[in-house]
User: What shape does this take?
Amino acid sequence: MSTPRNNSVDTGILLETGTNELEILEFYISETRKEGEPPVPNYFGINVAKVMQVIETPNLEPPESAPHPSFMGTIPLRDHILPVLDLSVWLELDMPKTERDIVIVTEFSQSVTGFLVSGVTEIHRVGWGEVIPPSGVISSSTDAIIGLVDKGDRFIQLLDLETILSQFTQRDDLEVEVADQRYTALVADDSATIRTMLQEHLTEANFNIIMVTNGKDALDKIFQLKEQALEEGCDITELVNVVISDIEMPLMDGFSLTKNIKQDEVLQILPVILYSSIITKELKHKGDSVGANLQITKPDIHTIPGRAIGLIKGGNPE
Assistant: This one.
């Protein structure tokens, strides 16, 4: 299925909650590897839910005062004035510019952004269990690649666009609530950038942190803690007080992780906070249906310690 240019992306696929699946828009960036030889496509994927529209290249010339080499300028679209970033620059790919290039317009983390690429191929429905963690498989100068999908004749590299945008939206002046006693949080996120951010905020808020990089490892760890609590004859909350998880992760997503926790008679008392760059009504409904106690967007990630403290104390997390 090809994706129309100058049109919104509509997949028509509804994913059942807790099936550990997602839809990805596959696109490619051509790369000139050897002079005189034709460019070679590199295939990437992003969550369809983050895609607003696919448009033709506006043929922008990067301004001399660009805040980053990837910044190409801004364009008007609907009610927005959005920045356009050359994704090949971030990924250090020598992409030849052509009239057939396109801009993928995304909306997430409370911002609308365009990403210049060579073209779009199709939409896939994949299970998070099919997503291969990139560590040890590929070497890259960016931590924005969060996983690989093997399509037989090619690998699709899944991109974490939030990591890229975080370079433009750093907020260092945000205050974090501090707990009056030491708590422990199990945190699951595949993005090194977000993990570092949460580590800093939660440490400042007086939390011990158990950090994992995907939902499967989080579930394995939480069941290990459950067994430890049973062996020691203590309550699970003496070992961990809250689970904080990204929704989109390789191997197991946050919805499936939450569903497994909330269906367990011992673990279900643990509050679970889910976050994503987008929390639509549909995603909110999915999170509610699996028992998530709270769902927030990534721009509000600095509020997680305070909200976690509220949940642990049994009060209002807002």
Q: What stands out?
A: The first strand starts at residue 21 and ends at 31. The chain has a mean pLDDT of 85.
